[in-house]
Structures are given as structure tokens and as C-alpha cells.
Amino acid sequence: MKTLNYSNRNRVKIIFTLLLLSITFFLHGQEPTYPYFYRVYLRDKGDNVTSKYSASDLLSSRALVRRQKAGIQVPDIRDLPVDRSYLNQISLLGLKLHSTSKWMNTALFKSQSAFNIKILLSLPFVSDIKPVKTPGKKNSYNNKLNFQVIQSDLPSFDLPITMINGYQLHVSGYDGKDVLIAILDGGFINADNISSLTGLRLRNGVKTTYDFVKNNKSVYNSSAHGTAVLSVLAGKVPGQIEGTAPGADFLLLKTEDVESEFPCEEDFWAAGAEFADSAGADIISSSLGYFNFDDPTLNYKYSDLDGNTAFVTRVADIAASKGILVVNSAGNERNTAWKRIIFPSDGDSVVAVGAVDGNKIISDFSSAGPSADGRIKPDNVAMGVSVPVQTSDSSIGRSSGTSFSCPILSGMAACLMQAVPRALNSDIIGALHSSADRYNYPDSLYGYGIPDILLVLTKLQNLFLKIPEKGIIVSPNPTTGNFEIIFPSPPEKVTIELISMTGKLIFRQDFTSYAGRSLIISELQHKAQGVYFLRVINGSEKNVLKIIKLND
Q1: Which residue did the predictor score with more confidence, 94 or 142?
Q2: Residue pLDDT, tens place only, 422-465
Q3: Residue 390, in any domain of the structure
Q4: Which of 155, 162, 169, 340 could form a disulfide with 174 if both were Cys (CB 3.0 to 4.6 A apart)?
Q5: Three-state DSSP class for residue 364
């Protein structure tokens, strides 16, 4: 290891100064402020090698299931934590660790005063340093979390779902159940109180909260932007708001510093995405994005929109490589000087969502593509003008922005995952593209256009289901709980009955409008071992099959 070029006296002085500052803030009951942040790129993972860890040491069981479904190696070098000894040596220099990115092998350090980065570059395990926050003046570009809620009842409250032909999934029982969505946003004020999320709270659908800006679990005290997004996903008030995935579970992750705009927020986003991966999230829904900063010398350029340059874009693509469906707002910049999509929506594995109005016309604010390397962006569009949202318990209003077209699409994707659990994130992206109304003539405003979610479901089921030529298939049979009914063609409406050996009707469900070719029945999960009869009434056709239930 190289010897540092400063004396022990200076080292003692730094430590003593930091100690005095810590005591001062402790006595005044305040947290110190850190106007300087530095992203430190490390050369390697030190002594951390994959052979030291089992998969369960690094990832939750949910995360392992997702990885295994996609055939992803577990663990790989990116799953290993940043080397602790490296972090300790940097901390001894007087910098405070804020977060790390194991995927990018970086560490985010902060300081109360400017730090000589040449000292860090002299360390043999450091490859590069990037200042990612400096004292600066708020500029006029950074208004992406500002939004207005207006009172209106037009267009129809359910148009965001009916426009993309998603209503039939909901009435067929596909509401995102058992799918975990991580929302990366700027805060969730009132999400623990508003009426449209009562059902979510009663079933404990919020699994975790965390603020990666402040490094604590409090997310209900900063910005209502995430609250509005969550209401689009999970809100439910009849006749006023209908979430696209009201049955899904959620991680509420604050990664945006609403007080300023600096590249360190890309590091917060990375920390949130890695947390989501480790927790087993199936979807990341992010209504955030980056391009200009309070310090203009840190701004991105249009040429950086190539899917491989921006830190946050590279992180988003890695998240996708772990099997997560990453859905991100395209941005609201077309009527500003920037005009283009925002990072990380330029990622080649990221679904960038633009916004149309109730007449399916692209909004004047929805950011334009293509990517700098000529790829079709945005990927798809959904309703983003006058979308029902709730941010306070007093009323439900309407708001506009790609911030709200994004959760419309990510929520419907959760319903698709529930309906076709074998589908991978790449399968869903491909089907969203090919089912859209501009698939054969995509452009830089609509991308592939407005997707037909029912058609997406059909395409996915055609990929993963063994479709019978006639009759129906029930599998597995015998079963220890769930079983799936597969129809030769979508039944449109169907009645399902389960009958015991004694002739008692133990379950009946009518689907007056049914989406897709398969139906998963869970009613036998808690029933006794034995023989049951399944009656399927599809129009004038009736089928009766014997189902054998075994104990686990």
C-alpha cells in the first residue's frame, strides 16, 4: 500500500476537528449537513470472492426464485459486497460513508468541506473519483417532482385501464397478487393515511420502507409525489380511482433528494435498486430521471443517452439482468430546452413510458426519443394526462405527467406476471412492444405505441402454455394445492365449481368476462386430502373432471 503524503499531525488535526463537529451537533440535537459527495470507483472486490458466500448469504428466497426462474447464475461477482477494508481505509481519511453499490463496485462518501481527491486517487484500490454533489444554486430545470392536482371528473376515472384493454385482467382475478413492486421515488407523504390505500394497509401490502437519502426508514415525511404514484398503482375508491395493481405488494423506497438535484441521487437510486433486488422485487417502477443538475458542470449531454454511459442507466440495466422488470418514466421535457428522454429510460432493457391524453394523442410534455444510438424510445405510451391520483385524504384529483403513465404500465405488468408466472421480464417487454398500436411503424414520440394488455396476455400464454386442441387440461393433477385450468381458446365467460365426494358444493365462481386461456384455482390449498370434482361451465359446454388432492 502506498504511503499517504500528509503528516500524522495533520491526521490528528482532521480527526480532532471531526470530533469537535460531532460533539457540537450532538449538543444542539442536529444532524450535520454534508454539501460534498464523492463517488469512489474501486478496482476490485478485494478479498470477497464468490466461493466465500452461499446464495442465501446475499439474497432473499424471493430473489433466488426470480434468478433461478430466469436461469441467472447465483451468486456472481456483482452480488458480492464492496470490500469493507477499502471502505474503512477511506473513512479514516475523514470522509463519511453514505452508501455503496455492489453492482458498480462504488462507494458514496460525503464531507462537510471540500476534500482533496488526489489523496483518494493515491490509494492503490481506487480507480477513479467523481464529485457528485457540491454546494450549488437550485436551477430552473429541476422541477420533475412538482405536480399539480386539480379537481375534475373527466375523462372517466377508469380510462387509464380501459385505454390499454386491461380491465378484463382485473375482473378475471389478476390484480398483481403475490407480485412485489419496488417504487423508487421522492417520498410518500400521507400514503399511510389516504382513503384509497385503506385496503393496501389492511392487508399489510407495504412490506418495507426506506429512505436512502437520509438512511432511515421514514418515507412518509417528504414529498407526495410517491404517494400519487402509489395511488395509481394500488388506489381503490369505487367510481373515483382504480389502481392498476391493487393486489400487489410494495417496497416504498425514497431515493430522490427533493431539496436539490445532483448526481449523488443516481447513487441513491442504485442503492434502492440493489435493495429491491435483494428483497426479491419483481418490478421496479421509477417515476424519476436525470439529465441536468444544480452544478451545470455535472450535466449530462444528449450523446450520453446511448444506454451505456449514465451511472443510473447502467445500474438499471444490471437490475434488468437480474430478472427485474424495470419501468421508468420517459420524462416531461419535450416543451423544455432538453426535449429528450431522461436517464435511465435510455437503457436497452428499461421500459421507458411516455404519456398520451384521453384521446390517445401524445402530450406536449412527453419526452422524445430516440436514444442517442438510434434505438426506439420511448418503448410504449399510456395515459398520462388527467390521471386520477390521491395525495390527501380530503379529495381525489387529477394530475398529469409521465410520472403517472409509468405506474399504469408497471401495474398492469404485475397483473401479467400473476397471470403468466413463467414469463420473464424480457418476454413481457417483447409482448408490450409487439401488441402496441404502432408496432409496425414506431416513432420517437409514441415509441411502439399504446399496448393492448389483453393481447399481451394472449401472446405470453401462447409462449408458456400447452394449449389443448379441444377440451380442457387441468394440471397438476394430483395436486397439493393450486391447479391450473387451460382452455383451448379464451372462454370469455366461465363458471367454476368444486364439489366434494359427498356432493357438497364447496366453491363456485362466475367470471362474466374472462381474460386469457388459463385459470389458477387455489381453493384446495386448505382442504383435506381426497377426491373432488371440478365442474367447468363455458357457455353451453360443461366439463366435469376428477381432482385428487394430496397433502404436502
Answers
A1: 94
A2: 999 999 999 999 999 999 999 999 999 999 999 999 999 999 98
A3: yes
A4: 169
A5: coil
